[in-house]
Design goal:
homodimer, 342 residues, alpha/beta, 4-stranded parallel β-sheet, 12 helices
Chain lengths: 342, 342
């Protein structure tokens, strides 16, 4: 507790001095009970806790936030924390900002723009000091509002041109190119792609298309289907592909993320076919499940933890006043990981 | 923005009125720019944003928190958000409290008591309104401090006897009993257990021991090994078990969670042995990966999402003043899920 918090205030808030007076102990003893850093006799602790309850005393960080204009909280806006990529990213971010005394506040948008907008408003209302935003729609202007208000924003993926917005992205185009190219080099000729939802992840589609073009293979529009990033969505999309006449079925599929690739493997197996014998499958992200599924996924590594760490560092450099310049971009490589599925 | 926030204050904070004056617009226009709920001409928006930046204006929720003594934030303390069980629990909690306007703040303790203590102090300092605590150590007294201060606490698992602490737990004893009993009913006689770290998860060990006892099988101390809840830890523990002389090896292993069970499957396969032919494997939790691993895991369902939802409801009932009584306990069942590993 700071010295200030011990002074009597005129705003009606309960002070440590009042707690101490009611408990019949010194303010220092109350501080010790609150901090837990010194041993205080059980009976005294009990008396102090009773006084705290009776007066409704609350610690002082909110008041301090008001003075310093800092909430010491960063928000991370993700489609869904139960998607491993985002939980690992969040962990990397939390580990990085924790040391500087910042907490991490999580918002799940389910990839819906209206939820994203509502959360951004909420984040501003709460006075979060910084925002890490894994927006579904890279072109979303949502991030611009906090940035305009002087709250540093780090976007994950996408490309937002704004003087105060930093960007951490993984090299999805090259990663997708490498996975697709690998499927082709192994003999695939009718290569399908299970994309994310419409208007998402253009870089992964671009990498797929470049690999096809450089290999002089035609991109069959009927073999480009959308999933919703989930395992079920991937299974559904693969079923659509397998529902085509046998000679028009794909012999390989590049999936824009591992969860959909796992769903694609499900669908191939349900059809009584083999992976990679009948249909080779490539994913993207290299989540833990990529080595749990059978066959293990050939994929591109998406460095989720490092993305979170880098986002945290970019935020902290602005929050600590070490940097106040133009938006920076950090591009992390996505190396090809060859396993058994393709 | 509230009416109050438009009045000039004596505490040196920038008000909306000051922003409006500098921008040469009405306070109402500033409110519209901030809320985004009305359309404001791009040029006007730009001018308002410039004024906001120049004055360092920050929205008013922090000041409101001070008046209402509410931060509208609940903290969830978990060992590791990248463990699917905790990310799904967190999602259930967030979905439940979100509707009432509460944000979710995540703390990763890595199962370390000192980190847990530090986070609890931090949570109190921030003025979080409620805490959901998945402590590693059920006997941890950490939760008592916030509860003593009148901050509602919901503990996940364990058994804490405190008038203000609610408890949401899954019926781990019965779930573990069922998985172990199933392994025995399928013919296992030398059943090992990969436990969590020492002093964690007594209910799962109790269920295992009861199934062994009721089947008149001896619990071999050498077949009780500890893991650290991770896949690597499970693999390591299984290697220890497989390192024993062949006639003393287990013919089945019950693992206290699925991640360790997946690691155990890894170790059995690395030894050139089969699951369940040579060693049957049972897990606990029924995470997504349980159906991704091959063979798919026989396990007990741990209703992670429902645990989060129930924790959120218990907290909200106290925060909304609907309940102010003794600590409640909600026990959720963990049904047996039979798949191919055992």
């Amino acid at each position: 507790m700071t010295e200030t918090s011990r002074k009597r205030r005129s705003d009606g808030r309960v002070t440590i001095t009042q707690v101490a007076a009611l408990a019949g102990v010194s303010p220092t003893t109350v501080s010790h009970v609150l901090s837990g850093k010194r041993i205080v006799a059980a009976e005294t602790r009990g008396t102090v806790h009773e006084a705290i309850r009776a007066l409704g005393y609350r610690p002082n960080t909110i008041a301090r936030s008001l003075r310093t204009r800092r909430s010491h909280m960063v928000a991370v806006v993700v489609p869904d924390i139960t998607n491993t990529f985002y939980s690992v990213l969040t962990r990397g971010l939390a580990d990085t900002v924790d040391g500087a005394g910042y907490g991490t506040y999580v918002c799940n948008t389910d990839g819906k723009v209206d939820r994203e907008t509502a959360f951004l408003q909420d984040i501003l209302d709460r006075g979060a000091d910084g925002i890490v935003m894994a927006s579904v729609d890279a072109a979303s202007v949502g991030a611009l509002v906090p940035a305009d208000m002087g709250v540093p924003v780090v976007c994950i993926g996408g490309a937002i041109d704004h003087p105060r917005v930093d960007l951490v992205t993984s090299d999805d185009e090259v990663g997708s190119y490498k996975v697709t190219r690998h499927l082709i080099d192994r003999g695939a000729r009718r290569v399908a792609m299970i994309e994310g939802p419409p208007d998402s992840g253009p870089a992964r589609i671009a990498g797929f298309r470049r690999a096809m073009r450089e290999s002089r293979l035609r991109v069959d529009r009927a073999l480009m289907v959308s999933g919703d990033w989930t395992r079920l969505g991937g299974r559904e999309a693969m079923r659509t592909l397998l529902g085509r006449p046998p000679q028009r079925r794909p012999d390989a599929v590049f999936c824009a993320n591992d969860l959909m690739a796992i769903g694609a493997v499900d669908a191939v197996h349900e059809e009584g076919l083999g992976v990679p014998g009948d249909v080779a499958v490539g994913g993207f992200d290299d989540v833990d499940a990529a080595t749990i599924v059978n066959p293990a996924l050939t994929t591109a590594q998406n460095p989720a933890y490092d993305v979170g760490v880098n986002a945290g560092r970019l935020l902290m450099s602005r929050l600590e006043g070490e940097y106040d310049g133009a938006g920076r971009t950090i591009v992390l490589p996505c190396p090809l990981v060859v396993r058994d599925s393709g």
